[in-house]
Amino acid sequence: MGLSSWPSDSELDKIKKNVAEMAGVSINAVKIVVSPYRICPLGAHIDHQGGIVSAMTINKGIILGFVPSTDSQVLLKSGQFSGEVRFRVDQIQLPKHAAKSNGKTQENGSSDTMEECKWGSYAKGALYALQRGGNDLKQGITGFICGTEGLDSSGLSSSAAVGIAYLLALESANNLTVSPTGNIEYDRLIENEYLGLKNGILDQSAILLSSYGCLTCMDCKTKIHKLIHPPKYETEKNAETKFPYKILLSFSGLKQALTTNPGYNRRVTECREAAEILLKAAGKEAEPILSNVEQEEFEAHKSKLEPNLARRAEHYFSENTRVIKGLEAWSCGNFEEFGKLISASGLSSIQNYECGCEPLIQLYEILLKAPGVYGARFSGAGFRGCCVAFVNSDNADKAASFVKNEYFKVQPELASHLNQDTAVVICDSGDCARII
Ligand code: GLA
Predict the structure, then answer these.
(1) What is the H or E stretch that residue 23 is in?
(2) Closest CA to 49 of 206, 202, 232
(3) For this structure, is 13 an active site residue?
(4) Catalytic one among 47, 152, 187, 203?
(5) Mutation choice for ligand 1 from 199, 264, 349, CB with most ligand atoms inside 8 A
(6) Residue 134: which residues within 8 A CB-CB, separation 6 or more?
(7) CATH code of the domain made up of 9-238
(8) Residue 295 in this model has a pLDDT that exceeds 80
(9) Which positions fall inside the GHMP kinase C-terminal domain (predicted)?
(10) Which residues are registered as beta bridge partners of 27?
């Protein structure tokens, strides 16, 4: 594991103090889960179709301090949300979306109106997943959870980071040993079954498998992953590697998904419709996902698709190709090429996948003009949140001010509501989620 500058000692101390106070124990008894946010430079919206994706974590994210309870009680407080969440680990959890048909995660909008429901549901979802996996939990936790200020609900998969943090804490309190692959599946149960989002395994794979400085590549069909190391770079005195790039996050100020926009799940359904038609035309019987269609079969039969379905499939096949090329560019340290592929991916999300919204598209266009930017795209699903860019480290500050100023010109209202310290954030690569 490499060295990541997050979390700082002062962040950890704050959390430990809160938990110690809540549980009436000494600070030394408090355990900490760190669960970083993720970015996906290439491989957008193809995980749910069994495509190949690339991802990495950043040096910001979720910290959960906890101590095992003396009984089955879970008691949680949050640095971002008011109130407290209480439930027992011996209470059977049922899928939340069965009761509320369009319940959704932080990333793609939520139908919940009560703050408590919103943030408490991830802990209950983690319990649901562990119970579904046949685990009989006896031990609750007392915990305090906190996300990096200004970066929640932002397309960085705070939802998966939160879900994973609770999984790791509940597993630790109950002496369960679960592999990263096991937790990828448990987080899938939280998202797909408990919350009803038809997403793929990109987010949790990135959070559980990433390693400092590497690009994580996940084949979402075979579930085989590999870490792509960059070429060797100089190491600074404080033992941090001097990478020639920085990761730039530019926030749109859009936090709430448009409730009238069924967004994410609708696109997943369209991809499956396209796959069904293509598989039928090719005379194949298989699950209707695009990874079961060969590129040649798509080329031969795409005329049978309605134009919108043809565009979704075009995004899938072209994005898979960009991921393969991107892994090669990354391993050679060719950030110019890597960046061009990211921007092409961004364009395909706009033109073929037709996701995103005006402020995000404006941010994308501004980033492409910013000094030193290698490439940019929406981060995450693209319906709200931020855009991610790779930028030459020497130009990172200049690029950040450029983006801040230009975005203000096109979206003064949204930009003025952003915290000026976190409107554009420069960060580095991170490590995987773990207990420290
Ligand atoms: C969200 C989903 C992921 C993935 C991305 C888009 O983050 O949770 O599964 O589909 O959008 O790439």
Answers:
(1) helix 9-23
(2) 202
(3) no
(4) 203
(5) 199
(6) none
(7) 3.30.230.10
(8) yes
(9) 329-407
(10) none
Which residues share a beta bridge with 67? 142
Are 424 and 400 within 8 A, CB to CB?
A: yes
Ligand 1 environment, Cβ below 6 A: 40, 44-45, 47-48, 107, 157, 199-200, 202-203, 380-381
pLDDT, tens digit, for every residue of 196-206?
889 999 999 99
Among protein residues, the one with the nearest Cα to ligand 1's atom 8 is 199
Contact between residue 358 and residue 246 where contact means Cβ atoms under 8 Å apart: no
Longest CA span, the chain = 67
Contact 314, 352 (CB under 8 A): yes
Give the domain ranges of the chain: 9-238
Give the torsion through C-alpha atoms of 368, 373, 374, 375, to 10 deg. -40
Q: Ligand 1: which atom is nearest the Cα of residue 191?
A: 8
Q: What is the pLDDT of residue 21?
A: 97
Q: How far is the CA of 104 from the centre of ligand 1 (A)?
A: 13
**What is the 123 CA–ligand 1 centroid distance (Å)?**
20
- Select from 267, 266, 265, 275 the least CA-distant residue to 305: 275
Question: What separation in Å is there between the alpha carbon of 70 and the centre of ligand 1?
Answer: 37
Nearest CA to ligand 1 atom 11: 381
Q: What's the gap in Å between 238 CA and the centre of ligand 1?
A: 35
Ligand 1 centre distance from Cα of residue 381 (Å): 5
User: Which residue, by CA, sits nearest to atom 2 of ligand 1?
Assistant: 199
Per DSSP, helices labelled H in 217-374 are 263-281, 295-301, 307-332, 335-351, 358-369
Q: Are 6 and 146 in contact (CB under 8 A)?
A: no
**Helix (H) and strand (E) counts in the chain:** 13, 12
Of the residues 37, 159, 203, 264, which should be mutated to test ligand 1's pocket, given the most ligand atoms within 8 Å of the CB?
Answer: 203
User: Does the pTM of the predicted model rise above 0.70?
Assistant: yes
For 55-113, how does the pLDDT look when each residue is reduced to its tens digit (9 = 90+)?
A: 999 999 999 999 999 999 999 999 988 999 999 999 999 987 665 544 334 333 333 43
Return the CA Rg of the chain. Answer: 21
Q: Are 431 and 209 in contact (CB under 8 A)?
A: no
| Contact call for residues 77 and 100 (beta carbons, < 8 A) | no
Query: Which atom in ligand 1 lies closest to the alpha carbon of residue 159?
Result: 8
